[in-house]
Design a protein that fits this description.
By secondary structure, the protein is an alpha+beta fold. Helix content is 36%, strand content 11%. The longest helix has 20 residues. This is Di-copper centre-containing protein.
Length: 344
């Protein structure tokens, strides 16, 4: 593993800079794409007894996200857990696939009103993360969350795709696990052979872009107001859950509509890295309070179902069964302790 990540000696001279996809050169984009594809070729470290469908290192991250879905969404773990997940993916890309850059992000606020053909992350070129799914006539979605008393209802109109990724480097990208969420009407693929969704079920990644979602929830105005108008984490976190977090997944659709295995789409990490960027910016406006003092909001379970205590800095979190636990405290600052990164 990179020694820098664990020394706690973060300085202006060694800090990593995570950059927006559009700010990377064509060469840098291809290097990232190649590293992600490499991760999908490496053998899984997940126990076959736990997830026989996990065949690659990329699948390992899907397993972890699926295992903890009902405690890391609509809970106090959303932001710290996904910060650590993105960090672990970045580490795997660098240490196992020779990637020399850092995890890029997708600034939805910059591109919300830009047609896919003009957006470097979605234009379908060999330097993109591929674009929409092929258009397939389909219905919208109406499903409920896997927790909550009562569960929350999620409505999503039919998007502009609905089929397998149509072009670009991930046109043949395969997801092996899931689907797990119920009521997706085929938008996440055929049923899994195991009830828990961890059986081997290779299929294409479906995307179903819904532009009005990203325009409504992830615009520059919305992101700016979220950062400037949320005076405490108790305002910021709920607004993130129902706003920019939901907006990114809701825009992509398809596999991203499956709360459990959405990490099977490489866009998942671009989205969550941007979420981490927004959180980091918000934290930096009142570092003393927002990093450790009054820094967490929410309980240890999705929608507090079953009822649970509030998340604390000393709680342990785990990204994958073969990785060591870290504390929430370990994840709170991007420039202290285990991390050493900023955003451009």
């Amino acid at each position: 593993m990179d020694s820098l990540a664990y020394t706690g000696s973060c300085t202006a001279g060694n800090i990593r800079v995570r950059r927006e996809w559009g700010n990377l050169s064509a060469k840098e984009r291809r290097e990232y794409i190649s590293a992600v594809q490499c991760l999908a070729r490496l053998p899984s470290k997940t126990s076959r007894s736990l997830a026989p469908g996990a065949r690659s290192r990329y699948d390992d991250f899907i397993v972890g996200h699926s295992l903890y879905t009902t405690v890391i969404h609509n809970s106090g773990y959303l932001l710290p857990w996904h910060r650590e997940m993105v960090f672990q993916l970045e580490q795997a890309l660098r240490n196992e696939c020779g990637y020399t850059g850092y995890q890029p992000y997708w600034d939805w606020s910059k591109w919300a009103d830009t047609p896919d053909s003009s957006n470097p992350i979605f234009d379908g070129s060999d330097t993109s993360l591929s674009g929409n799914g092929k258009y397939v006539p389909h219905e919208g979605l109406n499903y409920t969350t896997p927790a909550g008393d009562p569960p929350a209802q999620i409505l999503r109109a039919a998007g502009t795709g609905g089929g397998c990724i149509a072009s670009g480097p991930f046109v043949n990208w395969t997801v092996n696990l899931g689907p797990i969420s119920q009521g997706l009407k085929g938008q996440a693929g055929p049923p899994n052979p195991q009830a828990d969704g961890f059986g081997y079920n290779p299929r294409c990644v479906i995307r179903d872009f819904l532009p009005q979602t990203i325009q409504a929830l992830n615009s520059y105005q919305n992101v700016t107001e979220l950062i400037l108008n949320s005076s405490t984490i108790h305002e910021f976190h709920p607004a993130v859950e129902s706003g920019i977090h939901a907006g990114g997944h809701g825009f992509i659709g398809g596999l991203n509509s499956d709360l459990f295995v959405s990490a099977g789409d490489p866009l998942f990490y671009m989205h969550h890295t941007m979420l981490d960027r927004v959180w980091s910016i918000w934290q930096s406006l009142d570092f003393d309070t927002r990093v450790y003092k009054d820094a967490l909001d929410g309980t240890r379970t999705m929608l507090n179902d079953p009822p649970s205590g509030n998340v604390t800095l000393d709680d342990s979190i785990n990204i994958a069964p073969f990785l060591k636990n870290v504390t929430v405290r370990d994840t709170m600052s991007p420039t202290n302790g285990r991390y050493c990164y900023i955003y451009d």
